[in-house]
Design brief:
Length: about 220
């Protein structure tokens, strides 16, 4: 098991009101899982991914990664765990504009001081997604679909146990969204890479080998979508 969430709850206070996003939610992620979480806007998908990805904390309950409770870690150890074991792909991809495609892929490796072997790996990954001849392009010189592939590679450079993707196809057209989903499925199959993907798009949710629905403050296995 890579990650487990045990009865986590989260609320936000807004003025005098309290919004409970979810309550007593539990989840286990195993190696090779391709989990999709679908839910309407405001259901709490981003909140859940942020908590599972240790970017935010639950009000109660606990998150464990490789059996270690994340609430028992010091900030520096948590940052290290996040950088070495977790990968993130965001809706707007957040590539750094002043760095090339290759340099963007390498950023997490440099934070992790693993540049030596990483350069070769970054080049292999760029080749894997057909971007070798774009490696020296800046984000402004890449198409939206190309940027999204670079963002996925950046999430993979440190060999994370799990990649979190929050609405990864959100700003892509149908064709590029399909290519990104194909890439995620291929990485999941060929490299046994675990993914946890949040989306409100049923086509994206459909690629999951395990499909979950976040609604009414809880997470359930989906039947037929
Ligand atoms: N920092 C915050 N302070 C107060 N309320 C928040 C905060 N972050 C999120 N919320 C509220 O929590 C709920 C869940 O938000 P969240 O962003 O997780 O939803 P989502 O499922 O990702 O939606 P979308 O599909 O639109 O991205 C929403 O009602 C939102 O308004
Ligand atoms: Mg969201």
């Amino acid at each position: 098991m890579i990650l487990s969430a045990d009865r986590i709850s989260k609320s936000f206070a807004k003025g005098s009101e309290t919004v409970t996003v979810f309550e007593n939610l539990s989840l286990e992620v195993h190696a090779g899982d391709l989990i999709t979480i679908i839910g309407p806007s405001g259901a709490g998908k981003s909140t859940l991914l942020n908590i599972l990805g240790t970017l935010d904390s639950p009000d109660s309950g606990s998150v464990s990664i490789r059996g270690e409770r994340t609430d028992s870690l010091e900030d520096a150890d948590l940052a290290n765990l996040r950088n070495t074991s977790l990968g993130f792909v965001f809706q707007f991809h957040h590539l750094l504009p002043e760095f090339t495609a290759l340099e963007n892929v390498l950023i997490p490796a440099e934070i992790n001081r693993r540049q030596d072997s990483s350069q070769q790996k970054a080049l292999e990954l760029l080749d894997f997604v057909g971007l070798t001849d774009r490696k020296n392009h800046y984000p402004s010189e890449l198409s939206g679909g190309e940027r999204s592939r670079v963002a996925v590679l950046r999430a993979l450079i440190n060999d994370p146990d799990i990649v979190f993707a929050d609405e990864p196809t959100g700003n892509l057209d149908a064709e590029n969204a399909q290519k990104l989903m194909d890439l995620i499925q291929q990485l999941n199959r060929d490299r046994n890479q675990a993914f946890l993907i949040a989306t409100h798009n049923a086509d994206v949710a459909d690629i999951g080998t395990r499909k979950l629905v976040l609604k009414d403050r809880s997470l359930t296995e989906s039947g037929i979508l």
